[in-house]
């Protein structure tokens, strides 16, 4: 009997510890600040204004609005894309809001917010290219992708179609190689492609969208309290119309 009681007490003790161990929201409220990690090299979602040096973009405005809705301030930390999930695991950030899809973050065994955007991947070629009008024309061609992106995962799933998949640290490098004829095409998110074409009309999107990625905020596995607060704040922003205002500001095509 004593052993049974001891086991029950141990279970209750550990159960209570498990319940109390999620301090994700408590930590944010204690410092009155939400630390958001991102890679500010992906306009119009996040980038650094070359004139002011300030961060700007859809994710920047959305994170600011979410934090305000949650009653705290926001601090942005710019980091290398490939190190974001590792930094989240180490506690460098409370949350990632950086146009990251579920598929890109799934390997990190993380918590996801509700989907806040759906992003299609498309094919981009040099303007004037008449040889490529869709996916079927990429057979035997060299295709560029950003390392660690959903576009890279998509390309890898179809790699038998291509002569080569060339991988880049960041999309601008891939776009430059398309422009100067070093590769044939880039697979990239549609909003980025449209924005890039507005900056430099040397490119065009061809063919139908290849896939649609579910974009989410990413938190450490087990950060259920923070995840719930983020989802509640996102829902309120959507109902109030503020989300749509931010969307129109940055993502209207």
TrEMBL record:
SMART domains: PBPb. It is found in: Cell envelope. PROSITE patterns: SBP_BACTERIAL_3 (PS01039). This is Amino acid ABC transporter substrate-binding protein. Belongs to the bacterial solute-binding protein 3 family. SUPFAM superfamilies: Periplasmic binding protein-like II. Transmembrane segments: none annotated. InterPro entries: SBP_3_CS, Solute-binding_3/MltF_N. Keywords: Signal. Coiled coil: none annotated. Residues 33-253 form the Solute-binding protein family 3/N-terminal domain. Gene3D superfamilies: Periplasmic binding protein-like II. Residues 1-20 form the signal peptide.
């Amino acid at each position: 009997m004593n052993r049974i009681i001891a086991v029950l007490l141990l279970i209750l003790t550990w159960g209570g510890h498990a319940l109390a161990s999620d301090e994700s929201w408590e930590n944010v409220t204690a410092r009155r600040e939400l630390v958001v990690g991102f890679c500010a090299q992906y306009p119009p979602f996040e980038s650094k204004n070359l004139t002011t040096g300030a961060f700007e973009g859809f994710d920047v405005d959305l994170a600011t609005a979410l934090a305000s809705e949650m009653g705290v301030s926001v601090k942005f930390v710019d980091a290398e894309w490939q190190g974001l999930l590792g930094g989240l695991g180490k506690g460098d950030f409370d949350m990632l809001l950086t146009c990251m899809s579920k598929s890109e973050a799934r390997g990190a065994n993380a918590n996801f917010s509700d989907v806040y955007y759906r992003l299609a991947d498309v094919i981009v070629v040099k303007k004037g290219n008449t040889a490529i009008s869709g996916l079927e024309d990429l057979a035997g061609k060299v295709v560029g992708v950003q390392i660690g992106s959903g576009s890279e995962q998509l390309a890898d799933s179809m790699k038998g179609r291509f002569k080569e998949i060339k991988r880049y640290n960041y999309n601008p490098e891939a776009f430059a190689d398309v422009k100067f004829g070093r590769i044939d095409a880039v697979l990239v998110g549609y909003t980025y492609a449209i924005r890039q074409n507005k900056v430099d009309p040397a490119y065009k999107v061809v063919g139908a969208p290849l896939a649609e990625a579910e974009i989410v905020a990413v938190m450490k596995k087990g950060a259920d309290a923070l995840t719930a607060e983020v989802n509640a704040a996102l829902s309120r922003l959507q109902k109030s119309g503020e989300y749509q205002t931010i969307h129109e500001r940055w993502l209207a095509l």
